[in-house]
Design goal:
The complex is a heterodimer of chains A (307) and B (422). Chain A is mainly alpha-helical and 307 residues long. Chain A has one domain. Chain A is built from 14 helices and one strand, in the order H-E-H-H-H-H-H-H-H-H-H-H-H-H-H. In chain A, helix 9 packs parallel to helix 13. Chain B is of the alpha/beta class and 422 residues long. In chain B, helix 4 crosses helix 5, helix 4 packs across helix 6 and helix 5 packs across helix 6. Classes of the chains: A mainly alpha (307), B alpha/beta (422). Strand 1 of chain A pairs antiparallel with strand 4 of chain B, so a sheet runs across the interface.
């Protein structure tokens, strides 16, 4: 049975657009000129930067959405951005610092500063990995109904936790003041570079895991296991230069080791990271980034069909 | 006139596994892969593939309203998904000139925790509006949706009606050059669907290009300049909506608007009676098979009585889309009381105007005699003819000026007596 009646236009409540202004007219001309060509997916995966730029407003909106709903209907609200790293660091300080007497490195940096400086980037990494790995499945409705570059989703997911990171930063600065572990010289300017390294690493993994998660929801269970082990392998609760050299080189293949060692050096005047080990970390991060992107782009055409 | 959409050799292949098991566990895939590698599981490649679209080429000139019809699974929705770039074609290409909007996307990306205001900005960005455009149209959108009072309330506290109204008003203010509408996928109640259609009609008359996918043949007949029929991923018909619909009805219902049998031997029936042809008499000014709800519908039966025997009489059974019986009717005239003389009879059953509800209707015809307590069917044709009843919405039918859903197999126009103040 037809459930739709056809009603002549005069009876419809439809918004009547205002008469076109000169700007509208020129804009319309510009829009008509816009040509979209749809063709089979390219064989060679690439990050289409110009298209990402075209969709920058959408990226900003998606980030803004996730930031504004992040602590909705919680009692402590944004304070969680401080509480999570502080509580984690406190447990580490008591267990590993007091009971286990973990090494604080060559320069014997105050242990609480050392730990919090490790916990903050690790917290950023953990939140980003979880969010970006789930980003496609979590936005299923968008993926199956609207076109936009899918890379926006993992990308947005690694930007959102930066807010938490920035909110937690003053606590670290407080500890730096209390324990007098100020950066010694202009190396603190390099601090953001190490956070960028964490971001590139986690984005690469996010591309990879979100693409896999479209098909295999196993990812949801893999990520927490991985994140439980990762702090132990990244030197969050110890200074990496204090462990046997052989093992330092093994851990160097984990980019987060380079991130944390570098960040401590930049912010706390801890021992400078071994350049060779840092280079390995950067290399692995680049590999993860491009490898993840390649997997993501090559499975992208099938996302809407398989998700 | 320039071309708004140009599709050339568009094909889309699905592997059947993709469609049935949307996702499995990694373990299942690994074990399949292992079996395939060791040759314990043979994969018949061809059988696992399905061409949802196969070599589809068409052009839509700017300003045309194009309807796409076809059975479920014919490839209509896949075509829309390719055109909206939700999925990529396997081969072929499409060029689209102008901004594309679609009513598939109504409310897409609404976040329940965000307020109406925040969702307008979010949804607008998702639909491809620039911040400035949203700001310019913000007041109109809010006014149109009628949720001014709750604009700063999280939408999770909205009633579903408010939610849909707000979502629709954002989509309705997009003002695309090219509008894609999938009536099958569009959510919401009849009122909402009506608005979608209204918006479409308005865009069409404003010279925008519209591509409309629908099961509502009457809507296609009314709104479109041209229609395509897709079957098994291919375009099988392209032409004026009336023709395309008439042919389509012919294929889909086992019957169309007319059925004839070339000879007595081939015609259905027993030794006494054979039905030679059945047809629905067309309404003036309407395509065949599309009937105006207000006018009587004539079903003409030609049958032949072969020899002297019993008194026989014609009977029809009318069914709606769900095969619910609307009614049975037979000719009770006295002439059928005596034994019927041999010869050819042409009878027409007139279903009164303003009786059947809108939608697809089919009719069975039979030539019977009474063999109490049964009716003996000497000749019968199940689903002999079918047609679509259409309300053109001029306000003089049982639904009056109401545009919403109107339930029931029948919808007679009644006489109402009223007592009360003038």
């Amino acid at each position: 049975m037809a459930s739709i009646a056809l009603v002549s236009p005069s009876k419809l409540e439809i918004p009547t657009p205002a008469p076109p202004t000169a700007r509208d007219v020129s804009e319309a001309a510009e829009r008509v000129d816009r040509l979209v060509v749809i063709r089979p997916a390219r064989r060679w995966p690439h990050l289409d930067v110009s298209e990402l730029w075209h969709f920058r407003e959408l990226l900003a909106r998606l980030v803004w959405r996730d930031v504004s709903v992040r602590y909705k209907q919680t009692f402590f609200g944004v304070a969680w951005a401080v509480l999570v790293p502080v509580l984690t660091a406190a447990v580490y300080v008591v267990i590993f610092g007091k009971f286990a007497q973990f090494p604080a490195g060559e320069k014997n940096t105050a242990y609480p500063s050392l730990v919090l400086a490790g916990v903050l980037p690790m917290q950023y990494f953990a939140s980003s990995l979880t969010a970006s790995g789930m980003s496609l499945a979590a936005n299923l409705q968008l993926v199956t109904k609207v076109y936009f570059p899918r890379t926006l989703l993992p990308l947005g997911a690694v930007i959102v936790p930066l807010i938490d990171f920035l909110v937690g930063l003053p606590v670290l600065i407080g500890l730096m003041w209390y324990y007098d572990t100020w950066p010694n010289g202009p190396q603190f300017l390099l601090g953001p570079a190490f956070i960028l390294l964490a971001m590139v690493t986690v984005l690469g993994l996010g591309f990879l895991l979100s693409a896999i998660n479209v098909r295999y929801r196993d990812v949801r269970y893999m990520i927490p296991v991985f994140l439980q082990v990762l702090p132990l392998l990244s030197g969050v609760m110890y200074a990496v230069e204090a462990i046997p050299t052989k093992w330092q080189w093994v851990l160097a293949f984990n980019p987060m080791t380079a991130v944390i060692a570098g960040w401590r050096w930049a912010m706390l005047d801890a021992a400078a990271p071994n350049p060779g080990q840092t280079a390995i970390g950067v290399g692995v991060a680049a590999l993860l980034f491009f490898g993840g992107l390649a997997v993501f782009r090559s499975s992208e055409p099938r996302f809407a069909d398989t998700i | 006139m320039s071309i708004a959409i140009e599709a050339v050799g568009l094909s889309k292949k699905y592997r059947l596994g993709q469609m049935t098991a949307a996702y499995g566990t990694l373990r299942e895939s690994l074990s399949h892969a292992a079996k395939r590698a060791t040759g314990r599981e043979h994969v018949a490649k061809e059988k696992q593939e399905l061409w949802a679209l196969k070599d589809v080429s068409f052009e839509v000139p700017e300003g045309q309203v194009l309807g796409v019809i076809g059975r479920n699974g014919a490839g209509k929705s896949t075509l829309l998904k390719v055109l909206t770039r939700i999925t990529t074609p396997t081969s072929g290409r499409v060029e689209i000139r102008g901004r594309v909007g679609s009513l598939l996307e109504v409310g897409t990306g609404f976040h329940p925790e965000l307020t109406g205001r925040e969702n307008i900005y979010l949804n607008g960005a998702i639909l491809g509006m620039k911040r400035r455009e949203i700001e310019e149209r913000f007041d109109d959108m809010v006014e149109f949706s009628g949720v001014e009072k709750f604009i700063d309330t999280p939408v999770k506290r909205y009633s579903s009606g408010m939610y849909v109204r707000l979502a629709f008003s954002v989509a309705a203010h997009l003002e695309p050059e090219i509008m894609l509408v999938d009536e099958v996928l569009s959510v919401g109640d009849a009122e909402f669907q009506r608005r979608c259609l209204g918006r479409m009609e308005e865009l069409g008359s404003a010279g925008r290009t519209v591509l409309f996918v629908s099961h509502q043949l009457s809507a296609i007949a009314q709104l479109c300049d041209r229609a395509l029929q897709i079957n098994a991923g291919r375009i099988v018909q392209d032409g004026p909506p009336a023709e395309v619909i008439a042919n389509y009805l012919h294929q889909t219902h086992s019957a169309g608007v007319e059925r004839t049998w070339p000879s007595v031997e081939a015609a259905p029936g027993d030794d006494l009676v054979r039905i030679m042809s059945v047809r629905v008499l067309p309404h003036e000014g309407m395509p065949p098979g599309i009937m105006d709800v207000r006018s009587p519908i004539g079903i003409e039966i030609v049958f032949r009585v072969l020899e002297w025997g019993k008194p026989v009489f014609p009977k029809i059974k009318v069914l709606d889309r769900e095969s619910t019986i609307a009614f049975n009717a037979m000719d009770t005239d006295e002439r059928w009381h005596a034994n019927s003389p041999p010869g050819e009879y042409t009878v027409t059953a007139w279903i009164p105007g303003n009786l059947l509800n809108e939608g697809a209707v089919s009719a069975e015809v039979a030539i019977c005699s009474i063999d109490f307590p049964k009716l003996e069917h000497h000749a019968a044709v199940y689903e002999a003819v079918s047609f679509e009843v259409l309300d053109s919405g001029e306000g003089d039918t049982a639904r009056g000026v109401f545009g919403g859903q109107w339930r029931g197999v029948v919808r007679p126009l009644l006489d109402w007596s009223v007592e009360g103040p003038e």
